[in-house]
Design goal:
By secondary structure, the chain is mainly alpha-helical. Helix content is about 60%, strand content about 10%. The protein has helices at about 10-25, 35-40, 45-60, 75-85, and strands at about 60-65, 70. It has a two-stranded antiparallel sheet.
C-alpha cells in the first residue's frame, strides 16, 4: 500500500502524530521525543510517523531543526481536528 496525503488512514495517523506533538509541547518537559516514541504512542509504524512528520512540516505546522521540532500549535490543532485525533 502506498501512503499518500489523500489516504484516510494516513490522515488519521498524521492527526495522531500532531496530537502527540501538541501533548508533548504542552507538557514542556524539556525531554526529547524520538520518532520511535511517537510511533509507540500512536500505534503507527516508524515509516508512517516519518512520512507524517514530513507532511506536517511541508504544511508549515512544524519546523524541524537539528534534534528539535518547533511547533505551530494552531496548525497542529487544525490537523488533529481534521483527523478526529482530538
Amino acid at each position: 500500500m502506498t501512503i499518500t496525503a489523500d489516504n484516510s488512514n494516513f490522515r488519521q495517523a498524521r492527526g495522531a502524530v500532531a496530537r502527540v506533538l501538541l501533548d508533548h509541547a504542552a507538557a514542556n518537559t524539556g525531554t526529547g521525543l524520538a520518532q520511535r516514541d511517537i510511533a509507540a504512542r500512536t500505534g503507527a509504524d516508524w515509516y508512517t510517523v516519518h512520512i507524517s512528520l514530513k507532511s506536517i512540516r511541508d504544511e508549515g505546522a512544524i519546523k524541524m531543526e537539528r534534534n528539535r521540532i518547533i511547533v505551530n500549535k494552531e496548525s497542529l490543532q487544525r490537523l488533529a481536528l481534521e483527523a478526529g485525533a482530538v
